[in-house]
Design goal:
Blueprint (H helix, E strand, L loop, with lengths): L2 H7 L11 H24 L4 E2 L4 H5 L2 H22 L5 H21 L13 H20 L3 H23 L5 H6 E2 L1
Length: 182
Amino acid sequence: MSLTDVSSQTRRLPRLPKLSRTAWTLGVAVPIYGAISALTLMDAGSLPRFRFDPQPLIESGIAIQVHVAAALTTLAIGIYLMMAPKGFTLHRTFGWAWVISMAMTAGSSFFIMTLFQNFWSPIHALSAWTMIGLPVGIAAIRRRNIKKHREEMTNMFVGGMVVAGLFTLLPGRMMWHVFFAI
């Protein structure tokens, strides 16, 4: 039996499927969010319960109110765009509304400095990335590169809306106090 016979007889393990950037983002962000939330709640010593109290939002500054309104609009339009048929006039119309509301969400975040009192926090890097990614996604569809457009816009939705949205709901943050009580 020669060396080539042995190597041809070895069994190959099936390859794992290649994960998309969206899957990686969610795969990293969700466990981190869960760990931070669990540690914070264990420190508090009690479990949260759902309730809606808009008072913290009403008492906040105009920058936060504009940011939350734009983010909720972006989230609603984004969910519709993910589920609706693509390429039609309605998709393009809602797409432009999503781009505008996403730009307002990212832009208004630069006026919110609550984590590091007088400085931007690391989450502002996500806002800067969004302001760069929006024109990239628009340019892709204008060039008829549907795959690139879909990737850019989906990644911005997942990163900017889902992941950032999860981290606004961390225990102790303002949106936590709007939706949960301990």
